[in-house]
């Protein structure tokens, strides 16, 4: 039998044993963590460099494409002139990157546009207020095609109008409208006509016609581009109305479909887009196209030519081939990324 005076000593033995085991476990953990810490210290430089290199590789392509998106709004009579402007901006961006990364270690960073491997298109525009006829054509044409009509059609990255409200007709008859021809999920031909009119209370009214056919409507006697539509929106505007044909919006309000949901003409990468009754509207427009075929058409004035008349065309970067270079004491590489400038997925 154990007396009461024996219990404290046994409890002390148990406590000392528990503490001993705890110190042993703690010692093992400390040694293990110290080993891991030493290993991480040895490799921190390499891991950091690799992470930086990956950041530059991913950001480089997107950043140069983003620069091209803005530079495309300028006027360029040749692709080489355009590429130089993009690379001037990319050089400034690379200098900022390099100064940031060089704070941790000596680093060389550079992202540039590969002029010969990039793909180019055109911005077709009228920047001064006027009617929308093709005045550079002879004779002047109120109805004209923005995109190539044979072979490879053109995709549209951006398409924006500024309409003088009071220049619009009151009814659909003879009113300015835009027509687009593409295809649907079944592979049939599909077209849309978007008519712009005004009412007497300062509103712009939009009418939409949409139809499809298994037969190419251009081979029939049916004037698909004149098909009248039904009212889809009536929006109060000021003296001018800003229209985005890609988003289908007026003054930022989405209210109609023009390109949205429409597939390219079968076996091509683009659409046929027409200006109709261009003499019955006044304003400005700019369309960003994936092809340079417009420059060889029967009309259109290069921004590099003195004189002439609208529509004018200027080169744009449609798909950027971006060369990304990274060099540090721990990592070095050169990669090329192909990045679309416009999101044309619909």
Describe this structure in words.
The chain crosses the membrane at residues 12-32. Keywords: Membrane, Transmembrane, Transmembrane helix. Among the domains are: 7-36; 142-298. The chain is built from 2 helices and 16 strands. The chain has helices at residues 7-71, 79-101; strands at 108-113, 119-131, 144-145, 156-164, 177-183, 189-198, 203-213, 230-236, 240-244, 249-250, 253-254, 272-276, 282-289, 301-302, 312-327, 332-340. The strands form 2 sheets. Strands 1, 2, 4, 9, 10, 11, 13, 14, 15 and 16 form a 10-stranded mixed beta sheet that branches. Strands 3-12-5-6-7-8 form a 6-stranded antiparallel beta sheet, with no helix packed on it. A hairpin with a 5-residue loop joins β5 (177-183) and β6. The radius of gyration is 32 Å and the shape is elongated. The relative contact order is 0.21.
What are the salient characteristics of this protein?
transmembrane; 346 residues; transmembrane helix; ten-stranded mixed sheet; alpha+beta; elongated; disordered N terminus; membrane; six-stranded antiparallel sheet
């Amino acid at each position: 039998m154990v007396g009461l005076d024996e219990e404290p000593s046994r409890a002390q033995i148990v406590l000392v044993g528990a503490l001993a085991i705890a110190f042993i476990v703690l010692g093992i953990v400390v040694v293990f963590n110290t080993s891991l810490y030493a290993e991480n210290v040895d490799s921190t430089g390499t891991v950091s460099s690799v992470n930086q290199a990956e950041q530059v590789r991913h950001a480089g392509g997107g950043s140069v494409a983003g620069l091209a998106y803005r530079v495309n709004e300028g006027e360029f009579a040749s692709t080489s002139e355009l590429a130089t402007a993009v690379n001037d901006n990319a050089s400034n961006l690379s200098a900022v990157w390099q100064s940031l990364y060089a704070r941790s270690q000596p680093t060389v960073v550079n992202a540039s546009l590969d002029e010969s491997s990039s793909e180019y298109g055109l911005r077709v525009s009228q920047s001064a207020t006027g009617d929308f006829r093709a005045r550079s054509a002879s004779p002047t044409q109120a109805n004209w095609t923005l995109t190539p009509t044979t072979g490879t059609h053109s995709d549209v990255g951006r398409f924006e109008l500024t309409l003088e409200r009071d220049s619009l007709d009151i009814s659909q008859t003879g009113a300015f409208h835009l027509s687009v021809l593409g295809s649907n999920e079944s592979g049939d031909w599909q077209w849309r006509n978007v008519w712009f009119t005004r009412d007497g209370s300062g509103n712009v009214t939009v009418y939409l016609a949409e139809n499809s056919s298994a037969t190419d409507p251009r081979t029939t006697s049916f004037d698909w581009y004149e098909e009248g539509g039904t009212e889809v929106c009536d929006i109060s505007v000021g003296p001018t109305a800003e229209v985005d044909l890609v988003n289908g919006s007026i003054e930022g309000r989405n209210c109609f479909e023009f390109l949205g949901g429409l597939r390219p003409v079968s076996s091509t990468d683009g659409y046929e887009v027409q200006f109709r009754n261009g003499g019955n509207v006044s304003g400005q427009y700019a369309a960003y196209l994936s092809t340079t075929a417009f420059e060889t058409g029967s009309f259109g004035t290069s921004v590099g030519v003195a004189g002439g008349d609208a529509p004018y065309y200027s080169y744009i970067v449609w798909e950027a081939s971006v060369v990304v270079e990274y060099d540090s004491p721990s990592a070095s590489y050169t990669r090329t990324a192909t990045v679309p400038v416009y999101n044309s997925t619909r």
